[in-house]
Amino acid sequence: MTKQIYDFSEGNMKMRDLLGGKGAGLAEMTNMDLPVPHGFTITTEACHDYQRRQELSEQLLAELDQSLSALSRLTGKQFNGSDHPLLLSVRSGAAISMPGMMDTILNIGLNDQTVIALAELTSNERFAYDSYRRLLAMFGNVVDGIPEDDFDQILTDTKIANNYESDLDLTIDDLKEIVAKFKNLYENYDHGGFPQDPKEQLLAAVNSVFDSWNNHRAQIYRRQNNISEDLGTAVNIQEMVFGNYGEDSGTGVAFTRNPSTGKEGLFGEYLLNAQGEDVVAGIRTPKPVSVLKESMPILYEQLLDIAKKLENHYRDMQDLEFTIENGKMYLLQTRSGKRTPTASVKIAVDQVNEGLLSKKEALLRVEPESVSRMLHPEFEEEDLRQHEILTTGLPASPGAASGQVYFTAQDAKQASDNNKKVVLMRADTSPEDIEGMIVSQAIVTSRGGMTSHAAVVARGMASTGVVGAHELEVDYQKKVAKVKNQLIHEGDWVSVDGTSGNLYLGRIKTTDATIKGELSVLLGWAKEASKMGVYTNADTPKDFQKALDFDADGIGLTRTEHMFFKPERLLQMRRLILAEDAAGRKDPLKKLLQMQQGDFYEIYKLARDKEVTIRLLDPPLHEFLPHDEKEIEVVSKQTQISSEKLKDRIDSLKESNPMLGHRGDRLAVTFPDIYEMQVQAIMNAVVRLHNEGVEVSPHIMIPLTNSKQEMAWVRNLVVKQIDRVSTENDIAVKYTVGTMMEMPRACITADAIAECSDFFSFGTNDLTQLTFGYSRDDIGSFVPAYIKEGILPVDPFQTVDTEGVGELMKIAVVKGRKTKKDLPIGVCGEVGGDPKSIEFFEEIGVTYVSCSPYRVPIARLAAAQAHIRSVVNEPQFEKV
Ligand code: ADP
Ligand code: MG
Ligand code: MG
Question: What CATH class does 5-240 carry?
Answer without folding.
Answer: alpha beta
